[in-house]
Amino acid sequence: MNRSASEMGIEPIGKLLIKHAVPSSLGILVMSLNILIDTIFVGHWIGPNAIAAINIVLPVSFFVAAIGMSIGIGGGSIISRSLGNKNHDKANKTFGNQVSLTLISTIFFMSLGLYYTNDLIPLFGGKGELFDLAKTYYIIVMIGVPVLGLCMMSSNTIRAEGKPKSAMYAMFIPSISNLCLDYLFIYELGLGMYGAALATTLSYFICGIYILSFFVLKKSDLKLKASDLKFDVSIVKETLSLGLVTLSRQAAVSLTVLVVNNILFSLQGENMIAVYAIISRMLMFMLFPILGITQGFIPIAGYNFGAKNKDRVLNSVKKAIVYSTGMATLIFLFIYTFSDIVANAFTSDINIINKTSDALILVFMATPIIGIQLIGSAYFQAIGRAFPALMLTLSRQVFFLIPLVFFLSKIYGVYGVWISFPLSELLSTILTGIYLNFELKKLIIST
User: Fold this and answer.
1) In terms of residue numbers, what domain contains 178?
2) Which DSSP letter does residue 365 get?
3) Which of 108, 115, 228, 236 is the most buried (most CB within 10 A)?
4) What's the whole-number average pLDDT of the chain?
């Protein structure tokens, strides 16, 4: 029996959640720091337009990479539950199917993305002076995206089998290598956007080497055979249905960036896209402990649901919400207090600094309640309920944020864009809280 996995059904939930959440949080922290510092480097060494250009490219490249993440999380849910009910053959078969699905899908969408380069960049706001900068970064980064997809799939699989520290290292390695290569290529060699893109892509391949060594050197408890790579229809269907939640979340993020970039560009031009780029980076960076708790929560809830231990499932939900709410409150207080300092770190342009400082406070206003929404949708993903997980995940950005941005920007301009963020967070949290409470009551009375 996999000791790392079996501990998820034995150890106290609070201790177990911290054990899984801390490595996940640290991994996300380092990855977010990588993106954050990368943006600071680009902003100071290349210019504000370079920040805006990267913000235009990331939704497209991250969407393709998110295919790997979605397959990793979807299959990871199956693996956690399979290990919970001691079905190791299904866990191994699921991993093999994850590898095949990730390779085929990421290469296909990478090819599609490169073919339509000149159409996609303007669509996401890469117009005027931003087009050439964005195109330089986009082409190089897209080439490495299938490798990133495999890395993201594998790190979620490693986490699903109860090895959060190894999954953390898989996030550490590309982040640290990217920062070192950024300094070399941008600052020392003066390669500009080409250097920034090259550093990012090479860091994906370095991560791929670590992931490959993890599985080849038998550090994993999953034993992959050639026959496991052959598609099993039931496993593929379940993996994709559960992974669709994560993929839809990233698609919603990409769609949001598309809408917000174009609206901001029409209102105040390139500078406002740079402001949004900084806010986007801060959202990715500051929410790392909450995202870590969410990622740590999923295998614990999934394992215990598979083991039919409903008391531990309920306890994991409660503690995950309490921990994430506490951390989210601290995050908002930090942003509220230091918004000027945060904005100043990215650029020396006073106009952008002032606009960013005010916008940060508005966008982060509803952060203290975000844990309920994230844990609520993750709960359904963990127990294999794809449809409610998908609907709750899409509620914030697709059902609420995008319509609010369209509507409020026409009335209040840029202020309407920023206030749409906390309003959508509030509405989606209320919806998630009501539905989660209903489902947990059903679990309590079930036999």
Assistant:
1) 3-445
2) T
3) 228
4) 86
